[in-house]
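Fig. S4 source data, part A: sequence.
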Amino acid sequence: MEQKLLWSTATLRVHSKQLDAEEITERLGVAPTKTQRLGELMSPRYPESSVFDENLWLLDFEQPSSLEAQLGQVSNFVSEHLAVFRELARVSEIDVFCGCSFASEPGTVALSPDMINSFAQVPIEIVFDFYFSGEGDSLDP
């Protein structure tokens, strides 16, 4: 059965109560795709909404279209900034959020030992979120 990837994204996330997005950006020398600030409203249009309980710095890797290739780009970025990420890890939590959708089950994603090792050196947790559209072949007999 051939799997069809509909979309994928890998986002490097730095969560911190001590460092704000500007400080993280300054240390890495790269502008984030998106940020959230500790204490800001989650929904500015609704003043009664909850507030963010930490600062968040996000960098998206959406191209090329395979999750493995996106994770490879994240891994390379981390390796190029390894000393900075190790420092950030002392006062932050760092992870990579991976989301992807397949046209039908099953879907697979393979991580090379080198890629896993590059994340483990910081350490960086990898979070996977898989979606299936339900179209195409089914595993039911």
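Fig. S4 source data, part B ends here. The radius of gyration is 17 Å.
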